[in-house]
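Dear H.,

Thanks for agreeing to be a second pair of eyes. The structure we're designing against is below in token form, covering all 269 positions.
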């Protein structure tokens, strides 16, 4: 029973420490990383935009990457992630100095992924936006860290869709890195595409070349959705196969019951 799991084996193998318990997060904080990751994201944003929009630096529209400014950017990101509200006054002041305004949404799926994936996606979209003559302000940056694309109830994604529907905002184009970043659900993709078309807001993929303004946008959504569904199906089969093999080898498959712990399995050798 449970008592034997805590006994030291003849080979001297001690029970492994239990995984570090993570703090339970509120629903609105789902998809938010630690402040350290957001500080890195803010710094990458400032450095990238300063290199691509040097004229805005002289006008004071791109902040210096000081610790105070970065901390303020982190708090601003967290507030709009939770509430989906963006100050229109700051955007209107910026709109006088740039040709067009764009927004960006970024995501990765699980804790095993590298958080720098968000930065890489953001840089790709900032460069694509510069090619299109669009400036993406920090206020229009949204993301979900470690949240699956199969769910449409992602706080960052929901907040961005709230921004899309806000008629007072000056958003003209949405930039994503590729089709799967916005969603892994084909129905949600159709909803996003039709919402953007109804609001006359563009939707561009920086890596996969998707463009909602092109005549074949609906064919691409159909194909991308098919590929995404095939990927999910194959991934589920791989997970089932891996779990079946792990169970056959006596490996722990998930969270253990109360009173049990893990221990290294040794052989006669």
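And this is the sequence the design step returned. I haven't edited it by hand at all.
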């Amino acid at each position: 029973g449970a008592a034997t799991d805590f006994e030291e084996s003849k080979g001297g193998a001690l029970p492994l420490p239990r995984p570090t318990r993570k703090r339970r997060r509120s629903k609105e904080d789902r998809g938010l990383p630690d402040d350290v990751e957001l500080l890195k994201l803010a710094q990458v944003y400032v450095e990238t935009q300063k290199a691509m929009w040097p004229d805005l630096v002289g006008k004071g529209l791109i902040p210096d990457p000081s610790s105070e400014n970065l901390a303020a950017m982190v708090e601003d990101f967290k507030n709009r992630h939770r509430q989906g509200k963006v100050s229109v006054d700051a955007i209107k002041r910026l709109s006088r100095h740039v040709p067009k305004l764009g927004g960006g949404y970024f995501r990765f799926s699980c804790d095993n992924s590298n958080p720098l994936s968000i930065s890489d996606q953001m840089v790709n979209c900032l460069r694509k936006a510069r090619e299109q003559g669009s400036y993406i302000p920090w206020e229009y940056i949204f993301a979900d860290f470690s949240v699956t694309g199969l769910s449409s109830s992602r706080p960052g994604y929901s907040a961005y869709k709230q921004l899309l529907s806000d008629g007072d905002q000056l958003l003209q184009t949405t930039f994503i890195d590729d089709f799967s970043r916005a969603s892994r659900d084909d129905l949600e993709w159709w909803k996003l595409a039709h919402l953007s078309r109804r609001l006359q807001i563009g939707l561009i993929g920086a890596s996969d070349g998707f463009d909602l303004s092109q005549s074949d946008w609906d064919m691409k959504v159909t194909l991308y959705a098919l590929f995404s569904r095939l990927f999910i199906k194959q991934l589920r089969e791989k997970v089932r196969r891996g779990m079946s093999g792990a169970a056959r080898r006596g490996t722990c498959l998930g969270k253990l019951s109360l009173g049990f712990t893990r221990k290294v399995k040794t052989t006669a050798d």
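Two observations from my side: The first strand starts at residue 100 and ends at 107. Residues 1-11 have pLDDT under 50 and may be disordered.

Warmly,
E.
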